[in-house]
Amino acid sequence: MRFRIRFAQQVVGFFILAALATLVVVLILMGLNQRWFDRGYSFYSRFQSADGLTPGMPIHLRGFEIGKVTSVDLNSNNRVNVVLQIYSEYYDKIKPNSVLELEQGTFGIGGGLNLLPGKNLLPPMEPDSFLPSTDTLLGKNLLAQGLVDQPANNDQMSAILAEVQTTLSGVNLLLNNVNSAIDGTSNNQLTGLLQGVNATLRSLDSVLTESAHGLVPNLSAITANLAKLSAQLQDPKGLIPKLLDPKGSLATILNDNNQLYNEVQSILDQVNQTLVQVRGLTQYLNQSTPQITGVIEDTRTTLKKADDVMTGLANNPLLKGGIPEKKPQNATFHDLRDEDF
Q1: To bridge 147 with a disulfide, which of 97, 98, 177, 287 should be the other Cys (CB 3.0-4.6 Å)?
Q2: DSSP label of 256
Q3: 3-class secondary-structure state, position 146
Q4: Are 53 and 141 contained in the same domain?
Q5: Pair (120, 53) in one structural domain
Q6: Inside any domain, residue 243
Q7: Going edge to edge, which strands form the sheet with 99-104?
C-alpha cells in the first residue's frame, strides 16, 4: 500500500513538472514572438508636437515593423523628445541620412512612424545617435537634397479624392448618356427604354381616344332616356299622375277605411301573443332544468343499481337453474305456407 502511495505522488509530480515545462516553453515562445529578449539598439529623435506619438508605437520600414517607441517626453525648449528602439535584425537599415516620418492617417490623424533610410552604402549609425525627423530643419534638408530613400506618397486622402473623381466621372458619363438618349442621338439601352415609353404613351392616348368616341354615344343615349323619363313625369296623363290620382289603383287600395291597416294590426297582435307564449315556455323550461336534470340523474343511478342487482342474481349459484326452460309447443294449426306443393 505504501508503494502505491509513493508511486501516485511520483505521477502527480511528473504531471506538475510537465505542466510547468509547457508553461515555460509557451512563455519563451511568446517572448520570442514579442521580442522580449531582444535588447535592440536605442536612438532618439525630436518632433514639434506629440500629437499622434505614444509609447509603444511601432516603427515601420516599407510595411515591416523594425522597432517601437520607448518614451515620449517634453524637453526644456518645448520640443518633444522621442526615444525609440530598433530591433537587432534591422539595425543595419539605420544608415546615415535616415529620417523619421510621422505617418498622417485619415483626416490628419497620426498613423505611426516610418523610417526613411538614407541612400548610401555606409555602415549603420552608432547606437544612441540622433535620427532627424521631418519636423526638424535637418530632416527637411535631407529630403530636399534627395539623400533619403522616400517611397511614393500613399496619402489616404489622395486615394479617397481619386475614388471621388472616378465616381464623378461615372456620374458625368451617365448624365451624358441620358441627355443623348433624350435627344435621340445615341443607340444605347436607355434610348430604347425611352422609345418604348413613348410608344406606350401613344398607345394609351389612342385607347383613351377610342374609348371617348365609344362613350359619347352611350352618354347621349342615357341623357335621352332621362329626358324621356322627365317628360313622362311632367305628362298629366302619365303613369305617376295615374298612381297619385284619387281614383287610381293606389288610392283605391289605401282608401279602404283602414281595413288593410286593421288586418295588418291583427296579424301583428297574434304574432306578439305567440312570442309571449314562447317566452313563458322558455322561462318554465329554464326554471325546471335543474329538476329535470336531477330526475334524469336519479333514473340513471336506479338503472345502474338494477343492472348490478340483475348481474348479482345471474351469478348467484343458488338461483342457477331455478327458472325452467320453456319447451316449444307444437302448433295445431298449420300455415298454408307450411304445406307441401
Answers
A1: 97
A2: S
A3: coil
A4: yes
A5: yes
A6: no
A7: 41-47, 80-86, 64-74, 58-61, 110-116, 99-104
CA-based nearest residue to 115, from 104, 100, 95, 125: 100
DSSP string, 37-86: T---EEEEEEES--TT--TT-EEEETTEEEEEEEEEEE-TTS-EEEEEEE
- What is the C-alpha R_g of the chain? 58
Question: What pLDDT, in 10s, does the model give residues 27-76?
Answer: 777 765 655 555 788 999 999 988 889 998 899 998 888 888 999 999 99
Tell me: do 9 and 108 sit in the same domain: no
User: Is there a single domain that holds both residue 25 and residue 47?
Assistant: no
Grid cell of 284 as nine digits:
318554465
Q: Are 66 and 24 members of one domain?
A: no
The more confident residue out of 304 and 74 is 74
Q: How does 23-48 read in b/e, with b if 16+ C-beta sit within 10 Å?
A: eeeeeeeeeeeebeeeebbebebbbe
Q: Are residues 25 and 106 in the same domain?
A: no
Pair (25, 49) in one structural domain? no
Residue spans of alpha helices (H) in the chain: 2-34, 137-144, 156-183, 189-234, 239-244, 249-254, 259-315
Whats the size of the chain, residue-wise? 341
Give the end of a domain, one of 123, 151, 179: 151
With a CB cutoff of 8 Å and minimum separation 6, the contacts of 119 are: 97, 146, 147, 148, 149
186 CB-near residues (< 8 Å, 6+ apart) = 177, 180
Q: What is the pTM of this model?
A: 0.39
Average pLDDT for the chain: 76
Distance CA 112, CA 58 (A): 7
Q: Is residue 306 part of a domain?
A: no
Give me the domain span that covers residue 262.
256-290
Considering the domain architecture, whether residues 46 and 133 belong to the same structural domain is answered as yes
Query: How many other β-carbons are positioned within 10 Å of the β-carbon of residue 16?
Result: 10
Alpha-carbon separation of residue 100 from 83, 108, 247 (angstroms): 12, 17, 123
Total domains in the chain come to 3
